[in-house]
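> example.struct
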């Protein structure tokens, strides 16, 4: 078969794309292929495992009319602005129209150095690429907007990090890879040249592809800011409800589409604590679990700043429109998060104001007692069915929890509804590390078993008990994640 790859981004925004070719892969072979996603894209999974399909997945065999390119963008990294970042080890192969008519990017990660590599080797090791595969598929199963992994292909090339590791390329699918950093790069061009043409074309591209309703607004670019703010508020609320810690919330990792992107130093929190940090490079806790809503808003403010030249020729009026476009973020986030918490507690129909004090008290008790964020809510459903002892035993202040449970039960929680939104299985950090270590040695069985668990997260199954249990405390307190570059 052949695959049709559009080159819309490269054609419409050539200033943001450097046409490039993937590095050779000496002995490529697929490690894991996402058959359901392939079918969704209209691609025969068997063809993806053929020589031509594998060549596509590592970027060495692409359709003649395809235009692989490294994308240019800027970004605030840990608060410091870098005016030129870009895809140092990635290529946008093009856009695919899936079986539902939706336009999706096909993108490679670890395909070799590009002009944006900044001295790096442009390669990726198999472990971090499999981490992204597992966690992005788990996020999809949890209904959290995310980029997805189509395949991980081993290249047969060694990658030199602290040790020598087998290399791999991740094929990633996204609604697009346009990010806040893309707009920041276009803003730099506008400031340097005095011409906002690229910025305007990028904004029009984002509106047409992601937020078409903004085109009909009185001020389309202000409406774009508001639309992006809305989808990002919903996204970070879902992260918080799932206990997900992104780990590297730079503006170049904040998408215009509202998808989770870049699964480098990410992880799922176990013991509830807003200060939870996993990333080895986040020494100050900037991107800690509890900071994620605030950082999302900060990133959106940088997005609005980049769009100021399009909002009005009058500086004060432009700032006023930008501020008005961002004003609804906090309220929208709180509504999404509050609705999610009421659903987790099985009291979706209860008034938000009556549940809010209970939520505040519960989270305080969970932090005090180091309660596992995921398993707690599943066990709480047993309390809604009349058996509170299993969940009660983990709390330090039993009297306080008993009082809380009594007031919660008065709201009439629905345990069956709770089981529909509270997962049994998440990619627990010790299980991810175990699966990756085995895969690096050639044993894919633990990876396949973990994927089987996390891709059906709400269905409790016999034989998967260990996938529902948190790690030993000794593992958790010392666990760190790394960016993989």
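> example.seq
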């Amino acid at each position: 078969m052949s695959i049709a790859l559009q080159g819309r981004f490269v054609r419409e925004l050539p200033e943001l794309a450097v046409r490039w070719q993937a590095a050779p892969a000496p002995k490529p072979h697929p490690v894991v292929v996402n058959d359901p996603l392939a079918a969704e894209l209209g691609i025969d999974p068997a063809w993806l495992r053929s020589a031509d399909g594998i060549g596509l997945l590592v970027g060495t065999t692409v359709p003649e009319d395809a235009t692989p390119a490294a994308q240019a963008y800027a970004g605030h990294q840990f608060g410091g602005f870098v005016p030129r970042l870009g895809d140092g080890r990635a290529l946008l192969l093009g856009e695919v129209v899936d079986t539902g008519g939706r336009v999706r990017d096909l993108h490679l990660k670890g395909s070799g150095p590009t002009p944006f590599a900044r001295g790096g080797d442009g390669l990726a090791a198999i472990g971090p690429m499999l981490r992204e595969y597992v966690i992005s598929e788990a996020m999809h199963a949890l209904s959290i907007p995310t980029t997805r992994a189509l395949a991980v292909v081993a290249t047969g090339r060694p990658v030199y990090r602290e040790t020598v590791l087998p290399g791999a390329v991740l094929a990633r699918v996204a609604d697009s890879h346009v990010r806040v950093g893309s707009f920041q790069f276009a803003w730099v061009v506008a400031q340097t040249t005095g011409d906002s043409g690229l910025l305007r074309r990028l904004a029009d591209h984002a509106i047409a592809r992601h937020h078409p309703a903004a085109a009909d607004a009185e001020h389309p670019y202000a409406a774009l800011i508001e639309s992006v703010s809305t989808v990002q508020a919903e996204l970070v609320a879902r992260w918080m409800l799932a206990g997900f810690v992104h780990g590297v919330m730079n503006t170049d990792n904040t998408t215009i589409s509202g998808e989770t992107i870049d699964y480098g130093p990410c992880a799922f929190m176990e013991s509830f604590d807003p200060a939870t940090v996993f990333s080895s490079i986040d020494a100050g806790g900037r991107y800690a679990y509890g900071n994620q809503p605030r950082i999302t808003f900060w990133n959106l403010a940088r997005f609005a700043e980049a769009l100021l030249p399009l909002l009005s020729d009058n500086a004060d009026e432009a700032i006023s429109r930008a501020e008005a476009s961002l004003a609804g973020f906090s309220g929208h986030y709180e509504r999404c998060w509050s609705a999610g918490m009421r659903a987790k507690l099985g009291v979706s129909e209860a008034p938000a104001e009556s549940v809010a004090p209970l939520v505040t008290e519960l989270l305080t008790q969970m932090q005090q007692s180091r309660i596992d964020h995921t398993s707690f809510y599943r066990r709480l459903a047993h309390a809604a069915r009349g058996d509170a002892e299993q969940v009660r035993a983990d709390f330090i202040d039993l009297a306080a929890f008993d009082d809380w449970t009594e007031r919660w039960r008065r709201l009439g929680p629905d345990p069956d509804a709770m089981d529909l939104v509270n997962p049994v299985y998440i990619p627990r950090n010790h299980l991810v590390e175990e699966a990756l270590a085995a895969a690096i040695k050639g044993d894919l069985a633990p990876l396949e078993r973990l994927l089987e668990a996390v891709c059906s997260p709400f269905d409790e199954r016999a034989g998967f008990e260990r996938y529902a249990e948190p790690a030993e405390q000794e593992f958790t307190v010392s666990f760190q994640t790394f960016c993989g570059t």
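> remarks
The chain has 19 helices and eleven strands.
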